[in-house]
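Q: Could you fold this chain for me?
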Amino acid sequence: MFFCDKWQELSFSDVGNADYDNFGYKVAISGDGMYMAAGADGGVNGGYAKVYAKTGTRWGMIQQINGTLSLSGGQFGWSLDLSHNGSMLAISTYNHAVYMYEFSRSSFLYELIYTTDDIGAWEVAVSGDGMVVGVTSGAISIGATIFERVGNGFQKRGRDFLEYGLEGGIGLNDNGTIAIIGDPYWSSANDTSIGRAAVFQWEKDNVDGSMQWMQMGYDIIGDAPGNYLGWWGGVSITYEGLTVAVGAEGYDRDGLTDRGLVRVYNHDSISATWKQSGIDLLGDISYDFFSMIAFSSDGLYISIGAYASNYVKVFKKMEITMK
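A: Sure. Below is the predicted structure, expressed as structure tokens.
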């Protein structure tokens, strides 16, 4: 007898306020599975984000946070992430800044915590405890950078990831010691833009004893040219950092073009490799780009957005017994 994983779709779904809002362009779910947020960077007046709370088995919207055109020219909701208990919400605008919101009583209150003019923010991730922030870049010279909070500000933690992260996704575990970073433009010797993702751990270097970002296992690589595996919004990681999900928005199957793909992987400590958990999760039709993903902390829930088709789905991990 052995166990394997299955993902069951739940009844919840929502749509954007208007056509071409790009609702579901980025999604996030809190580590405890009680809050979810979805961005719509194409909304009028600078974009918006919707925040949802779970009561029993039902999800309901508790707040819509609106951007303005004065916020770095709009596209507010380009990227977002939630802390473990949902009390901290980070939202970025396109290629500029990161904003932090703290939940107080019944609404999220705004505070600017970090501007990224010198980096060109592409995607933002916040650790479960809200003390570490990771940013991927739209600048070729800097792929990804991770910051830790010191007092009221942030300082860089370790090196820049020059070889990963350009317009890629990023995710952090609960205390910000494990990060997954996507590299969608990675190409093999023969094929272009296959994409890849890598996982790094903040730990002591065995050589000099200094704290460094050390890679866990090997790269997770896309299947074919034009998959763009690890595109922004296309990676996520669980609370402990040993389960990750990666998306490939340009994935084709069954005659459908760019339907999108999400795969979940568990870390095998014995072989130091990443092994797929469950079946492939696929978009419904061509040009869904079904690949914008976020985990709950325990890996039991995953939300996936298909921004081109304006929908979001939530799946629950089911354990089934096989004889």
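A (continued): The chain has a mean pLDDT of 83.
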